[in-house]
Amino acid sequence: MSKIGIIGAGAWGTALAMAAIRAGNEVVIQAHEPEVAEAINLHHENSIFLPSYELDLGIKATSVMVDAVDADVVLLVAPAQHMRGVCDAAAADWPSGVPAIICAKGIEQGSCALMSEVVGEMLPGKPIAVLSGPTFAAEVARDLPTAVTLACDDETMAKVLMETLSTRYFRIYRSRDVIGSQIGGAVKNVLAIACGIVEGRKLGDNTRAALVTRGLAEISRLGIAKGAHAETLAGLSGMGDLTLTCNAVQSRNFSLGVALGSGQRLEDILSERNSVAEGVFTASSVTDLARRLNVDLPICSAVDGVLNHGANIDATINGLLARPLKAETT
């Protein structure tokens, strides 16, 4: 049995706590909100972020960072735009040699840094892995079959982490492509908003299928330019995650796009939610990174325009449809 620390008690962090304890580990989860930690300890439920799921009695919650860092493995499940601050707060107490598994999907605004780059800067010398793939927290909490990718430069460590966290219904595949596993997970959130807008505008399944397919081409172009392997982007953390997130209202990013496409204002949508739709923040950083790498991402740029620059949705759609015809493989 290993002691697993989890930083971040949102829906995904809570679901991962359930998966980790099912794998036979001791689990401590750190919540930013003291009331969330109290609810988990007293009522064995995260009533704010993952309500209606009874948590294993063995899951212990805390609002104190050092309690979660005192572990054999630490899962970082804070929102991407808060990852730097979380690592800064944890750095002084982080034990030597304890691996950090990044479970957030996003690219930092301003720096355009991947989460592995942020964590590597803030926790120098600590082993890093990335857990990504097609996952809805509620389904992991229900112990439905799920497959994910764990990417790590150190294959020996990856094998140990796989054995530590895998269960019959939470199946982990390993990879050495740390970059690719993150590009797929970050960009798919932006594309899911685009597909949600299509749904909200009632543009049909053909349109959504086209967006998903051309969106995968954008993920591949950006990933390869950043140093990813093409096969990773066709796997669980690329095509798998994209397919899931772009086709289900369970997806926070897809449902946000549906609301936008139906005519709601972004400010109103966000004010009604207590969870983070990472694509809202990642849209600007993805397009910034693409400009730095001289990569053309028309769909992601269109979403960024709608979210952050006041672009009209119908005019944006017409602009995409008016783009010059070209070969599919470019």
Can you walk through the features of this model?
Helix content is 52%, strand content 12%. It is an alpha/beta fold and 330 residues long. The chain folds into two domains: 3-176, Rossmann fold (3-Layer(aba) Sandwich), CATH 3.40.50.720; 180-321, N-(1-d-carboxylethyl)-l-norvaline Dehydrogenase, domain 2, CATH 1.10.1040.10. It has an eight-stranded mixed sheet with strand order 3-2-1-4-5-6-7-8, with helices on both faces. Helix 8 runs parallel beside helix 12 (252-261) and helix 14 (278-292) crosses helix 15 (298-308). The radius of gyration is 19 Å and the shape is globular.
* CATH level 3 topology of the largest domain: Rossmann fold
Termini separation comes to 49 Å
Q: What's the story with the biggest beta sheet?
A: 8 strands, mixed
What's the CATH C level of the largest domain? Answer: Alpha Beta
Give the CATH H-level superfamily of the largest domain: NAD(P)-binding Rossmann-like Domain
Helix percent reads 40-55%
Identify the strand order in the major beta sheet: 3-2-1-4-5-6-7-8
Annotation, overall tally of beta strands? 8
User: Beta fraction of the residues?
Assistant: 5-15%
The Cα radius of gyration reads 19 Å
- Overall SS class: alpha/beta
Give the second-level CATH assignment, the architecture of the largest domain: 3-Layer(aba) Sandwich
Query: Average pLDDT value?
Result: 96
Which parts are unreliable, with pLDDT below 50 for 5 consecutive residues or more?
Answer: none
**Overall number of domains:** 2
